[in-house]
Amino acid sequence: MAVNGNNTFLDHTSAMEVLKEYERRDGLDIRELMDSKTQGGLTYNDFLLLPGYIGFPASAVTLDSPITKRITLKVPLVSSPMDTVTEHEMAIHMALQGGVGVIHHNCSPDEQADMVRKVKRYENGFILDPVVITRDTTVGEAKALKEKWGFGGFPVTESGNLGSKLVGIVTNRDIQFETDLDKPVSEVMVTELITATAGVTLIEANKILAQSKKGKLPIVDKDGNLVSMISRSDLTKNIHFPLASKTKDSKQLICAAAIGTRPEDKDRLAKLVDAGLDIVILDSSQGNSMYQIEMIKWIKQEFPELDVIGGNVVTREQAAGLIAAGVDGLRIGMGSGSACITQEVMAVGRPQATAVYSVSSFAARFGVPCIADGGIQNVGHIVKGLALGASTVMMGGLLAGTTESPGTSFVSREGKLVKAYRGMGSIDAMQDKKAGGGGKDAQKSNAGTARYFSEGDSILVAQGVSGAVAHRGSISKFVPYLAAGLKHSLQDCGMTSLQELHDCVENGTVRFEIRTASAQLEGGVNMESYEKKLYA
Fold first, then answer.
1. What whole-number distance in Å separates Cα of residue 72 and Cα of residue 351?
2. What is the reported pLDDT for 352?
3. Percent of the chain residues topping a pLDDT of 70
4. CB 3.0–4.6 Å: which of 114, 254, 271, 349 could bond 343 by disulfide?
């Protein structure tokens, strides 16, 4: 005991022991927080995580988390399959940063398959399907191939096919300044080649490539037939992007794409699989349907190596049917996106925090990872979605303003640089004719109408809006900022990994607090004027 005037205090060194006298920890556990009978439906803004003990640097936090039963990402961030968010550029750069991009399907099947190929060819370990040409291929044709694929090193074989005798390589340097487009590549190609023999390991092949100072290293069998290749640019990318999401076997970037649940989507999927697709997302605002369950079963039978993510769902009852059908992952959210008005127009949906907890806690019993899709406006929302049980977080509006999104940049009336962004349930998106090739039946092939079951409607009912979002710069800076913020948040909570976060939320170690309206106001900026820089 210590005495200070008329006051008597406990010995300060006993504080940790005295803490044990309290019957319960400060704050609420996850079940108390998410009890809808007492709390109602909660959004991300309605609560906070309470801090824990920091006993490690933020750099020690790991963010590895599964997106499907078989595929794990080093950064739990996913870009949404919206036509103003994810095409091949976004998918490539999301994968390079450790996440994954889901290519939208508001385009023709061939266009979507071509985007998948661009992602898969961007980075490789052993290139098992290189673009091969013959001696008779012209310089003009080689330049056209470079324009199409984005690279300019092509092996030349006797038959123009893989498995044929290697006779040379044509590089960008060989054709860059060649003006005679009809000249055969046999007159400009390099014939003195450094090669490796089939059976060489990737590490050994990379060493040979580094020592050779060449751009490509062909791998040949004992008879000199081309069997695969590796590229110097891929070796460089390995150094610059150590977190990149890659397949275990080919070391290519992981690629995901969305399709609908119509019969013609089966043909679309076949083209995507042929292009190298790793993950397919069944894109529907309400995933608990006979169409989606039948599609899941068909995909698992026809393409057993392809991972399937079902959704969208917001209740256990919706999720159960998709889990039983065999999904490898679930997508959670209905009406919570920044450009979505489903809850307002249809009066159907669920507040996102409640939806994520309800579905992910149920799906976890079957080992099915969940994506929290929608309602993400900042790093804090990402943390909360993951704390509630999601293994990854999907973003649309937050990424739509980046350089890599396909939206159009323009200056707003206020003089700010912005990019066009629209919900897939907006009238603009549902009337877009690209998916149907511009024909009179284009509405039936549109990704927006398919997602909201409106293909045959004579009057389209909007469930989304069109607008613009602030330009955020490149994914190469923005995603690392999000990941760094996530690491610091986990550090504040005393968690060294997402798995530990999930475990400690479940056992009650991580605590929460409800935020009243005035508490939310208190937690925001309260200044007459200020500048809000997110990262530097």
1. 27
2. 93
3. 88
4. 349
Tokens of 299: 């995909």
Q: Helix crossing, 498-506 with 475-493: angle to 10°?
A: 40
| pLDDT < 50 stretches in the chain | 452
Q: What is the total residue count of the chain? A: 536
**Using CA atoms, how far apart are residues 130 and 230, in angstroms rounded to an integer?**
9
Compute the distance between CA of residue 62 and CA of residue 58 in angstroms, rounded to an integer. Answer: 9
Q: Dump the DSSP string for 221-285.
A: -TTSBEEEEEEHHHHHHHHH-TT--B-TTT-PBP-EEEE-SSTHHHHHHHHHHHHT--EEEE--S
The yes-or-no answer on residue 340 being catalytic is yes
Alpha carbon of 80 to those of 72, 83, 389, 522: distances in Å?
18, 9, 19, 32
Query: CA–CA distance from 475 to each of 77, 114, 403, 471 (Å)?
Result: 12, 22, 7, 11
Instruction: Examine the residue annotation and report whether 370 is marked as an active-site residue of this protein.
Output: no
Give SS3 for 411: strand
Query: Can you read off the two tokens belonging to residue 136?
Result: 């008779």
* Six token digits for residue 461: 């009912």
Q: Which conformational region is residue 240 in: left (phi greater than 0), alpha (psi within -120 to 50 degrees), or beta?
A: alpha
Of these residues, 268, 350, 422, 451, which one is catalytic?
A: 451
Q: Which residue in 107, 255, 340, 493 is the catalytic one?
A: 340
> How wide is the angle at C-alpha 492 spanned by C-alphas 486 and 497, nearest 5°?
55
76 vs 499: CA distance, rounded Å: 12
**pTM, to two decimals:** 0.79
H helix count then E strand count, the chain: 22, 22
Of 392, 383, 331, residue with least CA distance to 487: 383
State the pLDDT at residue 465. Answer: 65
CA dist 494 and 501 (Å) reads: 9
Give every CB contact of residue 110 below 8 A, 6+ residues apart in sequence.
Answer: 271
Residue type, 213: K
Q: How far, in Å, CA of 363 to CA of 66, rounded?
A: 13
